[in-house]
Amino acid sequence: SPPPPLRRLSLYDAACQIAQEIAEKTQERNRCQRNGESSAKLNVIIRSSLQNLREKIDQLKDLLLRAVSTHQITQLEGDRRQNLVDDLLTRQKQLQASYKNEGTEPDVIRSSLMTGGVKRGITNPWLLEESEETRGLGFDDLRQQQQRIIEEQDAGLDALSSIISRQKQMGQEIGNELDEQN
């Protein structure tokens, strides 16, 4: 089995992905209900995913408790991770409430999931208003967009690095010229 940090990270990513899929399936179910289509299959998938998410959160809590109690991580890191787990737990409760709402007032549910909420001066990333670029995108689309942004940032950093290298070289040449002049 992988070391705890890697296991925890993949567990956290998996939990975030499940939460995203539940939100998408709930929206799809609500659309079906508004159009008078059957949503029984989606309800089964959502219920199963909610249970899976709850189990992943419980596993994350256990891993975190062990890591803190055996001093594998600092108290500060423990607090940071606890905030992430708390945010996931809040998200899970909101998704559960949204699921139980059976599709009534989906826009109200969606906005309540996506807005408001500041805790200890840190904005909860789950509760930020969704931007125009990401609205309507699925999990894979978001991941591809994120990868594209990272590649653009890497290219920008490479360009910045070459500029800084050139300036360093110019500075050294100016220094050499000053030494010769002196």
UniProtKB/TrEMBL annotation:
Coiled coil feature spans: 43-70
Limits of the T-SNARE coiled-coil homology domain: 147-182
Key word Phosphoprotein present: no
Keywords on record: Coiled coil
UniProt xrefs under InterPro entries: T_SNARE_dom (IPR000727)
Gene3D superfamilies named in the record: 1.20.5.110
Superkingdom of source: Eukaryota
Protein name (Swiss-Prot/TrEMBL): STX8 protein
Organism listed in the record: Steatornis caripensis
Gene name of the record: Stx8
